[in-house]
Input
Amino acid sequence: MAAVPDIAREPTSVRENPATLLPMPAPWALKQDRAVSPPVSLNGLTLAVVIPAYRVAAQIGGVLEGIPTFVSMIVVVDDASPDDTAVIVERSSDPRVHLIRRATNGGVGAAMLTGYRFALEHGADIIVKLDGDGQMDSSQIGRLVEPIIRGDADYVKGNRFVHTRQLAGMPVLRRVGNTGLSFLVKVASGYWPVFDPTNGFTAIHARALEALVWEDVDPRWFFETSMLIELGLVGAVTRDVYMPARYGAETSSLSIRETLVSFPPRLIARTLRRIWLRHFVQDFTPLALFLVAGALLTGFGALWGIVHWIQSAQTGTPASTGTVMIAVLPLILGTQLLLQSLVLDIQNTPKVPLIKELLRGSETITRPEDVRH
Output
């Protein structure tokens, strides 16, 4: 196992302008005791696994042993864990394993950004996020990365909500919370076909990862959701892959209170930000026109109706038909325009992967059996 010295600084942005997609500058030198193991060819792509590790001493050994042999690099980021997580990782005899020890606890997002940067600097083309608590079946990594290898997606995530029989194994609170949260994330990210947004079993192509402005990715509990939102802003294509979860005696690090209290306002803020950037700044789309007109008409109709309703209540005189129609017609038309803007937003989901440009002019043959364990 190759060890990496403690890291005291937070990762910085991959680049100033995400649209340029230039090679990523290294923010600091990461010294190792030995070179990264040679890449394994998956249609010419190098696959790395990043594991954010915090209080997983009981599970991390088994997780490392279960990672398939076609993975070239395993990066474990010890997020200042107070238990023996780092000690157990250091005992690994697998030459693919590289341990990065953060000096301070930054959260799952900060740990992942640290691992992402290390993997990118060492030539990874596809990077898989695998939690260290054993809830994710590492034998499914091949299925997870297949859409990226085929050039059909830039980012792939697991979805535990496909088969109802296996879904019964998920705790009830998680099921209810994920269902409501999924709808809010659809609105905030613009990825309407995507479900189960907090699923942390993900894979991303280096091109999509380099396109992000990393300062905008949340370093803690909001990490997976903020990744979806930021990927939507750069036009990355996202796909869901059914991925069964395994629930044992481990305790989830996702705080229910944190989710209920902090997620809704963050999602509302990011929804407004996404709509502003995608439909007003980057391009003034018909959605923007419908949204502005719909909001103005609805607001005028509602305000007119409320004012005259109060006047009628105070004077005891019913409002005239004309007065009522002045309120009703803008409300109806405004609502229709707002609904049409929603339809346009659904149709505007990214469809052409960023990695398609890498595949143009080259012959790419994909056999799914080549990437299965």
